[in-house]
Amino acid sequence: MATATARHILVNTEEQCQALKDEIADGADLADVARQHSSCPSGSSGGDLGEFGPGMMVKEFDNVVFSADVNTVQGPVKTQFGYHLLEVTSRKD
Which residues pair with 59 in a beta bridge? Predict the structure, then answer.
């Protein structure tokens, strides 16, 4: 079974999500930005979600995590929880 590790940032608006993505693109560390801005409890650990398999996260999340390039920030990704920036840190098929 495929597994992945990822970290993310969850915010309420697409605009804030895009602004944070721009900060990261300009050199800010995703983990630091997650600690400062993410509304997910994982924010306190730099957005780290640990290891998980397909179907363990919401569909929109899975679609990105199991197809996107590793170590590249993806998003904004809209889910029922809000807007996410996602970074797949590893993936095994």
Answer: none
Query: How confident is the prediction for the chain on average, in pLDDT?
Result: 97
| CA dihedral angle for residue 22, residue 25, residue 29, residue 32, rounded to 10 degrees | 10
Q: Which tokens in the block code for residue 50?
A: 């640990």
Tallying the residues shown for the chain, one arrives at 93
- Write the CATH number of the domain with boundaries 3-92: 3.10.50.40
CA–CA separation, 34 vs 8, rounded Å?
A: 7
In the chain, where the domains are located: 3-92
pLDDT in tens, 4-39: 999 999 999 999 999 999 999 999 999 999 999 999
- Supply the pTM of this predicted model: 0.95
Which one-letter amino acid corresponds to residue 12?
A: N
